[in-house]
Write a structure and sequence with these properties.
Elements: E1 2-7, E2 10-20, E3 23-28, E4 31-36, E5 82-85, E6 90-95, E7 102-103, E8 108-114, E9 117-122, E10 127-131, E11 139-140, E12 145-149
Antiparallel strand pairs: 1-2, 2-3, 3-4, 5-12, 6-8, 6-11, 7-10, 8-9, 10-12
Length: 150
């Protein structure tokens, strides 16, 4: 199965060649990878970890990014505020906030589908939404910024 994704403005062409047991053989922009799939023992609600954005080189013009090291977190300009990060890889199924909206700690800001489960990603602080770098249907990696609360 072939998919095309845009993550943080970078295009990826992903071809899932086969899945055998817990190992998936995939091709990302023509580079082959073996990906180990992990299934939780039981469904758990993950707490979103809020951390300052890590400085990352802009890879937009590099072509292929080393997916073994890449967190997907790319910023072209510093964003003020506290980022809400994806706790695990998945697909954005709903963005529940808009730019400038005031949120309270515990409000759902994004719904992330991972391993066929809908995960409500919640604000960990009160504030105003200052950026939303994701859109519904977009694939994200663990550590991607979902929204920023200023």
């Amino acid at each position: 199965m072939k998919y095309q994704y845009r993550v943080q403005g970078v295009d990826y062409e992903v071809d899932i060649k086969e899945i055998e047991g817990s190992i998936a053989r995939v091709s990302v922009n023509g580079a082959d990878f073996e990906v180990e799939l992990q299934t939780p023992v039981r469904p758990v609600k993950k707490t979103v970890v809020i951390a300052a954005p890590k400085p990352v080189e802009n890879h937009a013009n590099d072509g292929l990014v080393d997916m073994k090291r890449d967190t997907g977190a790319r910023q072209n300009a510093p964003i003020s505020g506290t980022p809400v990060l994806a706790p695990l890889p998945g697909t954005i199924t709903a963005v529940k906030v808009r730019m400038g909206q005031t949120v309270k700690r515990g409000d759902t800001v994004v719904v992330l589908e991972a391993m066929k489960m809908q995960n409500n990603i919640e604000a960990e602080a009160d504030g105003v939404i200052t950026s939303i770098p994701v859109a519904e249907g977009e694939a994200v990696m663990e550590g991607n910024v979902l929204v920023t609360i200023g």
